[in-house]
Amino acid sequence: MHEANANRRQLRILVVDDNRDAADMLSALLELNGHQTATAHNGLDAVVAATRARYDAVVLDLSMPHMDGFEAAALLRQLEPAPLLIACSAQDDAESRRRTADLGFSAHLVKPVPIDAVEAALTSTHRPSRSGMTQEVSHPDELGQ
Q: Which fold has domain 9-123?
């Protein structure tokens, strides 16, 4: 692991993309950076996974079968604590960006996304806490999990 990565917090991240190769590759890169990851390949599976295990962040494609990323995000935002949501999609139109902002996504990244951009989104964004105030994403042990 590079020295710069050694100073980053390890996060539990769910990578969701219907393109299995893309999900697996991003997951592997995040693991090389010291994070714990899991993958899902549609929004429905993402919601099920996030109700079974707590994730600090969900990197979510927007166009998927069974349940798209917008629908999944609306359900994921209801979890306590809600995970940080990062859109990672080819959709870069104004309407998609408005919808991700309205749904509480902390970042809207456009594919192909360099791993450094994903890491920046994971470390420089905030998420709502139970009190409604924002807090930095913390290591699972710091959140009592």
A: Rossmann fold (3.40.50)
What are the C-alpha distances in Å from 32 to residues 2, 11, 93, 105, 113? Answer: 10, 12, 31, 24, 16
Residue 129, both tokens: 């806490």
Per-residue tokens: 85: 């949501």
pLDDT in tens, 77-103: 999 999 999 999 999 999 999 999 999
How far apart are the C-alpha atoms of 61 and 131, rounded to whole Å?
28
Reduce the DSSP state of residue 136 to 3 states and report it.
Answer: strand
Q: How far apart are CA 67 and CA 121, in angstroms?
A: 24
Report the relative pairing of strands 84-89 and 126-128 from DSSP bridges. unpaired
Pairwise pLDDT comparison (113 vs 140), residue with the higher score: 113
Token pair belonging to 61? 């494609």
| DSSP label of 111 | S
